[in-house]
């Protein structure tokens, strides 16, 4: 099964030491590849490897993020790592039938959405004030039970509602969290973008 692009990029960046990773980020802020606009300093300030991958995919899409990562790795002398990334990508593409690629893309979206929801729990709990439209969507999709929906409705504050919503998501695992992420993309796209999520256009 093909490795999802964000996970492949993250695994590559995790092989860089701190100084090399900072050089990689610096290259992202420069004119590295024709047709790719430099990323802003603010967007990468104190950005972890995970957030850097999210920012690249958001700015350049998955294929573009792969291309610019390979180019920067070549520019900073990490030729073997660049070649490995390119070779692995080609092997996955050649070996995976189209139907499997489509299925992999769906799985990738679910995994990424669930990871985003887990990683940003504190911020989402504190900053989302309109909780009921989200709960309505999840209940309509049968991602949370009626009892949980009732408890969310009865909670007195938005933070209390969000905490109960997170508890309600747990039985559904990645599928429920991914559904939550998809609703966030529609209802809270600016917040998702601010937190480093990939906002689909």
Automatic annotation (TrEMBL):
<keyword id="KW-1271">Inflammasome</keyword>
<dbReference type="Pfam" id="PF02758">
    <property type="entry name" value="PYRIN"/>
</dbReference>
<dbReference type="InterPro" id="IPR004020">
    <property type="entry name" value="DAPIN"/>
</dbReference>
<dbReference type="GO" id="GO:0061702">
    <property type="term" value="C:canonical inflammasome complex"/>
</dbReference>
<dbReference type="InterPro" id="IPR033516">
    <property type="entry name" value="CARD8/ASC/NALP1_CARD"/>
</dbReference>
<dbReference type="GO" id="GO:0006954">
    <property type="term" value="P:inflammatory response"/>
</dbReference>
<keyword id="KW-0391">Immunity</keyword>
<dbReference type="InterPro" id="IPR011029">
    <property type="entry name" value="DEATH-like_dom_sf"/>
</dbReference>
<dbReference type="Pfam" id="PF00619">
    <property type="entry name" value="CARD"/>
</dbReference>
<dbReference type="GO" id="GO:0042981">
    <property type="term" value="P:regulation of apoptotic process"/>
</dbReference>
<dbReference type="GO" id="GO:0045087">
    <property type="term" value="P:innate immune response"/>
</dbReference>
<dbReference type="InterPro" id="IPR001315">
    <property type="entry name" value="CARD"/>
</dbReference>
<keyword id="KW-0963">Cytoplasm</keyword>
<keyword id="KW-0399">Innate immunity</keyword>
<dbReference type="InterPro" id="IPR051249">
    <property type="entry name" value="NLRP_Inflammasome"/>
</dbReference>
<protein>
    <recommendedName>
        <fullName>CARD domain-containing protein</fullName>
    </recommendedName>
</protein>
<keyword id="KW-0395">Inflammatory response</keyword>
């Amino acid at each position: 099964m093909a490795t999802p692009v964000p996970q492949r990029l993250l695994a590559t960046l995790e092989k860089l030491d701190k100084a090399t990773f900072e050089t990689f980020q610096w290259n992202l802020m420069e004119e590295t590849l024709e047709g790719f606009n430099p990323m802003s300093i603010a967007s990468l300030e104190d950005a972890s490897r995970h957030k850097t991958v999210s920012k690249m995919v958001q700015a350049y899409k998955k294929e573009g993020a792969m291309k610019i990562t390979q180019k920067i790795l070549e520019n900073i002398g990490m030729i073997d790592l660049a070649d490995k990334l390119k070779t692995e990508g080609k092997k996955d593409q050649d070996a995976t039938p189209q139907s499997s690629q489509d299925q992999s893309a769906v799985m990738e979206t679910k995994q990424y959405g669930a990871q985003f929801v887990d990683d940003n729990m504190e911020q989402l709990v504190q900053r989302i004030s309109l909780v009921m439209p989200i709960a309505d969507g999840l209940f309509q999709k049968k991602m949370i039970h009626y009892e949980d929906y009732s408890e969310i409705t009865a909670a007195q504050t938005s933070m209390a509602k969000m905490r109960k919503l997170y508890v309600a998501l747990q039985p559904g695992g990645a599928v429920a969290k991914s559904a939550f992420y998809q609703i966030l993309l529609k209802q809270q796209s600016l917040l998702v973008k601010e937190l480093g999520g990939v906002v689909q256009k």
